[in-house]
Design a protein that fits this description.
Helix content is about 25%, strand content about 30%. The chain is α/β, with parallel strands linked by helices and about 180 residues long. A hairpin with a 2-residue loop joins β2 and β3. Bound molecules: zinc ion (ZN).
Length: about 180
């Protein structure tokens, strides 16, 4: 299965229509049992070294096989400012194409935020929504946030999952399983 982030090369959020549609972004932390994002140790380490030690906002792709996030692609072509991360859609779609050949499935986008922004922004939610709209087979998209040790008190991953009508906080599971 090959997914594309979105069809265009650039993501232009339509915040106004998003707000009309969804009201305020909401976070349902009371759904039990929580979803689980299982991440390999290798990917966890890569995320720490790349996103966890550099200033926000930076990001990349997550890919999985057999339900385990086993790939991280750092979007070095993306544009970072201190308040937003602008992903390089064309480059990431190329990576997804390569991954599809190796049967690595797109599972989400991870990016870092400044220490005072522990929630997904409206723009983030709009982007996640656009990805889900472009890929009707996709039920949900992992959208974890990283608070970097470079500009927060400590490195943290906030494991958000966005599906078609809610945002939840998943349980993050780091595993030794190989793949
Ligand atoms: Zn963000």
């Amino acid at each position: 299965m090959q997914y594309n982030l979105i069809d265009k090369d650039k993501f232009e959020p339509d915040i106004a229509s998003f707000q009309r549609k969804m009201g305020h972004p909401f976070l349902d932390q009371h759904i039990f049992p929580p979803k689980t994002i299982s991440v390999s140790c290798t990917v966890f380490r890569e995320i720490y070294h790349v996103l966890g030690l550099q200033t926000a906002e930076r990001g990349g792709l997550l890919g999985s096989a057999n339900g385990l996030v086993c790939r991280f692609y750092y979007d070095s072509a993306g544009i970072s400012s201190d308040r937003a991360y602008y992903p390089s859609i064309a480059q990431m779609n190329r990576v997804l194409k390569e991954w599809a050949r190796e049967e690595i499935v797109f599972s989400g986008i991870i990016h870092s935020h400044p220490h005072d922004a522990a929630a997904l922004s409206k723009r983030d939610l709009e982007f996640a929504g656009a990805i889900l709209k472009t890929n009707p087979e996709l039920k949900s998209v992992f959208f974890p946030l990283v608070l970097s040790a470079a500009d927060s008190a400590a490195f943290r991953i906030l494991p958000y999952v966005v599906d078609r009508d809610s945002v939840t906080v998943a349980r993050l599971c780091i595993t030794n399983q190989l793949k």
